Amino acid sequence: MHVDLQGPWSPLLGRLTLGAIPYTNPILIGTFIFAATIALIVVGTVLYFRKLPYLWREWLTTVDHKKIGVMYILVGLVMLFRGFIDGVMMRTQQVLADGPHSAGYLGAAHGYLPPYHFDQVYSAHGTIMLIFAVTPILAGLGNIIVPLQIGARDMAFPYLNAVSLWLTVAGAALVMVSLFVGDFSNAAWVGLMPLAELPYNPGVGVDYWMWALQIASIGTTFNAINIIVTIVKMRAPGMGWFRLPVFTWTMLSTNIIGLTAFPVLTVALALLGADRYLGTHFFTAGLGGNFMLYIDLFWIWGHPEVYFLMLPAFGVFSEVIPTFSEKPLFGYITMVAATFAIAGIGWSVWAHHFFTMGLAPNSIAFFSAATMLVGIPTGVKAFNWLFTMYRGRLTITTPMLWSITGIVLLLVGGLTGMMLSAPAIDYTVHNSVFVVAHFHCMVLAISAGIFSAVVYWWPKVFGFKLDERNGLAFYWAFVIGSVLVFVPMFGLGLAGETRRLDYLYDPQWMPLLIAEEVGIGFYFLSVLFFLRMLYVSLRDRVPAKGDAWETGRTLEWMTHTPVPFYNFAVTPQVHSRDELAWRRANGLEEAKPDRYVPIHMPSNTGVPVIIGLLAAAFGFGLIWRIWWLSGVSLLAIMVLVIIRSFNKNEGYILTAAEIEAMENKIETASVIAEQPKRLPLSEVEAH
Amino acid sequence: MATMTKAGPDTRLWNPEADEHDSISARTFGFWLYMLSDALIFTGLFASYAVLSTPMNLAGGPGPAQVVNITEGFWQTLLILGSVLSYSLASVALKAGNKGGVALGIVVAMGFAAAFLGFGLHDLGGLMAAGNGPDRSAYLSMFFTLIATHGLHMIFGLLWMLVMLVQIARFGFTADVVARLLNLRMFWQFQATVWVLIYAYVYLMGAY
Amino acid sequence: MNLRFLRYFGLCAPLLMLGGCSTDVFRLFHPTGPVADAEYRYTLILVGVMMLIILPTLALTIIFPLRYRKARKAAYAPDWSHSLGIEIAAWGVPFLITAVLIYYSFNGIYAVNPYNPKILDSAASTATAPLKVDVISTDWQWLFIYPDQHIATIDDLVVPAGRRVDLRLTSTSVMNAFYIPQVAAMMDAMPAMYTKDAFLVNKPGTFTGFSGEFSGAGFSWMHFATRVVPTADFENWVNQVQASPKQLDYTAFQKLAQPTVNIGAKPSYFSHVAPGLFDKVVQAAMHGVVYNVPDSLTKGVADDEGKAGAKAPAHS
Amino acid sequence: MSTHHANPLDHAEIRQGTVLRYIVAFIISALCMGAAMLAVQLKLPFLHYAALVVALTLIALLSQAALFFGLDISRAQIWKSVSLVLTVPLFIISVGLTVWAFSSLYERTMLPPSGVTQPGMSAPAVPGMGPMGAPSQPTLLQ
User: How far from A220 is each of A125, A215, A613, CA to CA, in Å?
Assistant: First the structure.
């Protein structure tokens, strides 16, 4: 049963030896010094200002959906930076390693990375960007905005919400650890089979990839459950289904995908795990195994996953464009219908990822047609956004610019996507960088949605707007960078450059590669402008109003800015699709509640963060085959969950008087972010 | 559309009464969604089983017809259905707040489940002893994985039942305990549903 | 092929400015032979049809934000959010376009179906039977077996002009994809399985083929020459290779299939190829034969950066 | 709508379910599976046999959905029913399309299994090969 691997193994440390630490590799030493410096600065700052108790009390143990959302986004941004650096390394390698006479550095034959290192870099880039950057950021946005938009106090399951966050963090942590202890997978973010099987990948790289993905995807599934229940069960009175804001609709459809698609990934990875740990033959070429099955299972998850990421961005466009056009969204019903049409059709198109695998023409025809059908609802959405702007009164702020850019990217990505869904074209550019450029257009549209959302909702969470000037500079650097990187990449695809090359045999590609490298330079600039935007905004901190943009339309703009921990002092009664716009039209936007009632709040708990820590230890143990560590961690998680279930966790009550006092304090421009120190109800009764 | 309605003097803008949400139905619905995701795990496994149970996947080893024992499988079906029936009857006792009845139903359900698992282990153990373990061929890998995944769910359910027996004794029927008992009922019934599918597809179809 | 003039639209692509004066580098703009021609034609048709909707939408995306800026005080309809006509058009126009695309996509599937391209039925002269070539991708070279000629080559695919070529593809270890951009449809080469591909080139020429699916450390060096030569030259070449002292049976193949980075894709030639070698390779993989990748090509960067590369020569 | 102060045993989801319903569900499921098992002995043609097993399984599953899970369109259960109805197509799509795609893939990419048992082929015959054989040295052509 158990696979006996070659090489040293000890009961205490498993396969882990000193040789796993890359202390001889100059690139990784540099990375380590950089990461260690940042970590020291962060830890030092926290200790110097004695913020450790605050950090524990208000953040690490929090169950507040807004703080959890902020932490999700923070993790996502850190991973986005890591993924970006991977991108820089790939582009630099390719520009250095073009043509048989290209020089080699650091011991590599061409360029500065030997194949095995380059392969890890591109695998990490894809895994990180999709699973550990974009997914957490979107989950964070959903966490912050959905309860506010539907007038709820919190998510349906605040404790589970924290567990989801820390599982995602555990996965991300494993990816980061792989930089300094051992290797990451070299079999692409999709896990190429049978390349990821033991004979071709006997090291720990694939295990790192597999367990990081597995743990994080459990977190995502939990988060999906939470958001769906929140939307179905926790809406404010009066908010019928057809008054639901479109962002909330998209989060609902996206999380239905998350709930149903991620389990299939779990299966695919678990079967691969069985192959690697127990010696089964699911995806081996021989002994009856069938690695096409892995490809099939992976894309059953993988293609809905694309829409899982895309739909929230559509939701953002649908919020930002009406706000800055001062008009309701055009065609609300068709917008919702289109959202669900995309989610539904998206479930039956996955085989277009392997048209070149020998499928019969009639199967190919089905999947090709289904894929093209997705173009219809997507087109509807684009038209609806355009006609929202039509006869509007547009203020072109940075969120609006990002949203319009998102539409343009969607058009380019849609055009190339439709091309790829036609097999006659796919046969010529499948697995070329044309495909890479195509899906980057889509991911850039998602990024545009993310940046749009971050700038748009930033004041709601932090109480001040982001600096527009630096925001614009960030925008332009990013857009120019994108054009310079991805237009030449389409060209290279048409030139026949296949994906994942660490050495390019055709010196004629050089000019395009150089253009891409210049584009990467612009991306670098955009990171600097982004940081400067944060710095300047934080320095100037101009307090924003509850309705920060003054043309907000939905419920989240009705509460204070920044949002107090209890969201709404009194739950609003909803009368209209765009409740705030309706109240404004009736002169009621300043209306205050006339009386307050006690609010039941959940208590903070340290269990989720400990579960996250144990999950990371569990994964680490399995990766290095340190069986005792995995066993102990798994047992500890189970014991912890059981013990907690014996804890009558009933939260605490905010009294009406307290709420009134806090509301008055907010009126005089104070911020209510911290929860009062209070014993949970059960202990109050015990005293 | 409500968008156009005008606010009147008696328009209610805030609704303090709306604050309490029904936590039991939120929890059972949340757990139901978890089970749907679990059902998708089994969907993935069934799809894999369909792909890996052709003559091409036997690698010279035994195929479905040689591996499954449909009479033993039928006893297992009766056992798991009996276990679910027993737990369901416990939940009828819950209506009356009858602690002893609930505990009895759960204990009987555990007994049936243990017997079910015994059969399963005997089956898989026999295969392994004959050299037809999960590393023999892709088909056997798949067969073992499908049965073992269901078995792990059952073991998890047994653990959960143990915890619930303690909690009933200790806390009585509080909202938390009741919600957990309801979720456990769904979880347990779901195992029987999955088993029926496994029995029909793997055993009965395989034996033909 | 009547649409061939359309390729000059490709010349207008702004990319070309970046690519210098020559368009030779954009291989896909220079299809050769009926299969690639058809693929290129479908590309142009589909892109053309889509432009009917993409271009106007793109224009509106730019015009509306400019036209309805607050400062311009254009017409403002604060409550307008529904119009049956526009919504029907918003669904109807994409629906029509998609229907047209699906129609062409279906046609294309059967026209260039790699297992049996319809387009070749009409194009290939029936006088000569198709040339059979068995393709085996190893880690990391391409072995081309000519079963009827009993010869084999590494990284050098030579075929006669004007004759249909039928390929069978497999792999010894991991998945690869067979890809000659201007000539043949991309097709996966998979261990323990076979796939098929077919192409025809009418005029002599030289092309570069690649592997399209990442397969490990030597993947980037997995390119191969494709030479289309006049029939007479092909016969000569076959005779030459048939005289090659190197012979290929299964034992020799097993040595050859050991992981090898063939820098510069240097060709080798074999005579007396054992019959049924292709099937034997497929069956071996089905029985679980694998060619482990040696440590120095999978070991961590921790051990020694560039150890594998350091052994490789900088230039071929 | 119950609050956490009310008696949790009054909750609608506790109130549903009766002894009779559960026993009927048990009997239907057991009978269906028993009948399907007996059908194996009948030696029906495969299609008839398969249709019979599928039909009996469907009856068992439906009786479980209605009587064990108590799924209906009442206020307490409606969202469970809706989410199940929305998810069932995904089960069918995933399994159905996979089986369909692989039926053509097997036919078009696999040598028939009879070829597998060709004599003279065995996995560990070649040194340096086999699932976890000793790694060999790489070859670098120059």
Answer: 20, 9, 17
D90 CB neighbours in chain B (<8 A) are 40, 43
A599-645 pLDDT tens trace: 988 889 999 999 999 999 999 999 999 999 999 999 999 999 999 99
C105 and C146 co-located in one domain: no
B67 Cβ partners below 8 Å, 6+ apart? Answer: B127, B132, B139, B140, B143, B206
Cis peptide before A562 (omega within 30 of 0): yes
Q: What is the CATH number of the domain that holds C171?
A: 2.60.40.420
pLDDT digits (tens, 9 = 90+) for D57-113: 999 999 999 999 999 888 889 999 999 999 999 999 999 999 999 999 999 998 765
Instruction: Give the nearest partner residue to C254 out of D126, D130, D132, using CB atoms.
Output: D126
If one counts the domains in chain C, the total is 2
Say yes or no: C165 and C271 in one domain. Answer: yes
* pLDDT at residue number B1: 41
Provide the pairing of β-strand C156-160 with C224-229: parallel
Q: How many CB pairs under 8 A join A and B?
A: 186
Statement to judge: residues C138 and C285 lie in one domain: yes
Q: What is the pLDDT at residue A5?
A: 76
C19 touching chain D per CB within 8 A: no
Average pLDDT over residues D35-58: 90
Mean pLDDT of the residues in chain A: 93
Q: What is the mean pLDDT of residues A409-428?
A: 95
Question: In this complex, do C193 and D110 lie within 8 Å of one another by their Cβ atoms?
Answer: yes
Residue range B112-128: mean pLDDT, rounded: 95
From the list A194, A136, A66, the residue with the least C-alpha distance to A673 is A66
Phi, psi of C154 (to 5 degrees): -110, 130
Q: How confident is the model at residue C308 (pLDDT cuts 50, 70, 90)?
A: very low
- Check CB contact under 8 Å for D132 and A3: yes
Same domain, C107 and C248: no
What range defines the domain where residue C226 resides? 127-291
Do C161 and C25 reside in the same domain of the chain?
Answer: no
Q: Do D26 and B50 touch (CB under 8 A)?
A: no
Residue C303 located in a structural domain: no
A249 — pLDDT class (breaks 50, 70, 90) = very high
3.40.30.10, 4.10.320.10, 3.90.420.10, 1.20.120.80: which CATH number matches B70-208?
1.20.120.80
Residue A168 CA: distances (Å) to CA of A75, A158, A218, A222, C140 = 9, 16, 8, 10, 37
Identify any residues that bridge with C143 across adjacent strands, giving them in sequence order.
C136, C154
The counts of H helices and E strands in chain C are 9, 12
Whether residue C31 is found in the same domain as residue C135: no
